[in-house]
Amino acid sequence: MPLTADALLALLAENDIPAETFHHPPLHTVEESKALRGVIPGVQTKNLFLRDGKKNLYLVTLAEDAVLNLKSLRAPLGARGGLSFASANLLMEHLGVMPGSVTLLALVNDAEKRVRVVLDASLMQADAVGCHPLTNERTTVLSPAALSAFFSLTGHEPVMLDLDALLTVTEAEKQNAAG
Q1: How many CB atoms lie within 10 A of CB 44?
Q2: DSSP letters of 46-95?
Q3: Mean per-residue pLDDT for 84-90?
Q4: What region, left, alpha or beta, does residue 150 occupy, with left being phi > 0 and alpha being psi -120 to 50 degrees?
């Protein structure tokens, strides 16, 4: 049974992982989230729950405005076949959340460690990072140190990627192919 948002927040507190949570209307998109700017501190995230051709699962988290080409992730992740969005059923089965509430904090529900975590390295350089606490009606803000403590608590070791560099390499490859 997946944790509830309240149980997750209690778990963070019990493990001395500092976090500040803000309540708001349900947010389903980055655009809706941007309407709250000025109220919620930190870099806000977008999360992609992906699978490859061999049914390996990935949670890719990046800053809300970052651009990502899924093809550029294949090689660094060692993905088999193409990457595509995983189904809502897989999302619920492995992370215990519905579409619109995908979040790093859902890793608390991945007891089998089937989901590989991929973070844009720039997030760990921010003062604070905003994540949904298993519901899109709240945003929980954590420091990079608190996020690291959370990953340790859940037993997940994120793959850190410079997503800007991946995008730059992909653009350079396109130019070389066209030239």
Answers
A1: 22
A2: EEEEEE-TT--EEEEEEETT----HHHHHHHHT-SS--EEPPHHHHHHHH
A3: 96
A4: alpha
Q: Which residues pair with 56 in a beta bridge?
A: none
CATH of 5-163, picked from 3.50.50.60, 3.90.960.10, 1.10.357.10, 3.40.570.10, is 3.90.960.10
- Pairwise CA distance, residues 176 & 172, whole Å: 6
Instruction: Confirm whether pTM is higher than 0.85.
Output: yes
C-alpha to C-alpha distances, 116 to 52, 59, 84, nearest whole angstrom: 11, 6, 14
Q: What is the model's pLDDT at position 37?
A: 58
